Amino acid sequence: MGILRQYNNEIIIGHNVGPHEYNASTYAIKLYPATLGLSSADFYQNTTGRQYKAYHKLMVEYTRLLNAPNLTIEADITELLLFESKLANISR
């Protein structure tokens, strides 16, 4: 998660560490729901659309930057986007 955080990516749950809201001398880990990669759930429905294709390409490029095995990148990203699509449908 630390490597993904460097690229400003959150995995299902966003997090940060900051001063506790009632006791400023201590710190608290704050968790919150992360947003999906695409700004609208509608973009996940059209897998041939410009936004979906651009997002797919971006995900593949990020995955390569993280030194993932090239043999599985396309299949893994396709599976990941199917999962995000399901999450987008739940959040509608």
TrEMBL record:
One Pfam family this sequence matches: Peptidase_M13_N
Record domain Peptidase M13 N-terminal: where: 3-91
GO biological process entries: proteolysis
SUPFAM superfamilies, sorted: Metalloproteases ('zincins'), catalytic domain (SSF55486)
InterPro entries: Peptidase_M13_dom_2, Peptidase_M13_N
The protein, known as: Peptidase M13 N-terminal domain-containing protein
Species of origin: Medioppia subpectinata
Source species taxonomy: Eukaryota, Metazoa, Ecdysozoa, Arthropoda, Chelicerata
